[in-house]
Each structure stands twice: as C-alpha cells, then as structure tokens.
Amino acid sequence: MRRKQYIVLASSLFVFLLAISAYKYIYREHRDIGSEKADFSMSAVELKTVLAQEAIAPKYIDKVIKTHGMITAIEQQSAIIDNKVQVNFNGDVSGKLSLKNPIAIKGRCVGYDDLLELVKIDQAILVSPNN
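^ that's the sequence the OP posted. Answer follows.
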C-alpha cells in the first residue's frame, strides 16, 4: 500500500512540475527587438545574397539584423528595401516613409522566401529613416 501511494505522489508531482514548465514556456515574455543589439549589420543586397545560400542561411534565422537600402515599395505596416528585403514593422509607418528614400532598420530575420526571392524581416523598427 505504501509503495502505491509513493508512486501516485511522485507521478502527481511530476505532472505538476511538467505543467508549470509548459506554462512558463508557452507564456514567456516576447523579445524586445528594439532594445537588443544587432547581431549582424549589412546592406539589403548583401543580406539577400547571403541568405539565398541555403548552407549559410540558418546562421541568420531568428537573429537581430540591421540593414539599410532604398525603399522600393511601401504598404501600411511593411516596406520593401532594394527589391530584396521585405520588412514588417510593429506599427503603421506608411506616413513616415516615402519611395526612393534611404532607410535603415533593425528587426528579426525570419528567413528567405525562395518563391518571391525576398528576405523576410519582422518586428522591425526604424533606426534612422534618412541614413
């Protein structure tokens, strides 16, 4: 009888600890890309060239990247830089940007889209819209 109680108690404790661990993993704080230091810094053209190579690409995935170039397309919460990098911003930036102007951003690299041949960056912030 004692052994059965011990097994039930140990199993209950294990399940409880597993549930707490899962909860903390699922509901952890989101990254604040704006406060993080950039892991890599390069132009949009260089970034596209590097990420197009499948062997090197994993090194840049989920890293904070600072990039710069000319704005070639603008949407409400995103922009395309040098027809090479699609940047998704945290908020509406369409009023702050204009076509053919230089831009510098910092954001999280999501990866390379083979179909569109674009590097995808999200959670981006403007570092300096005129530099």
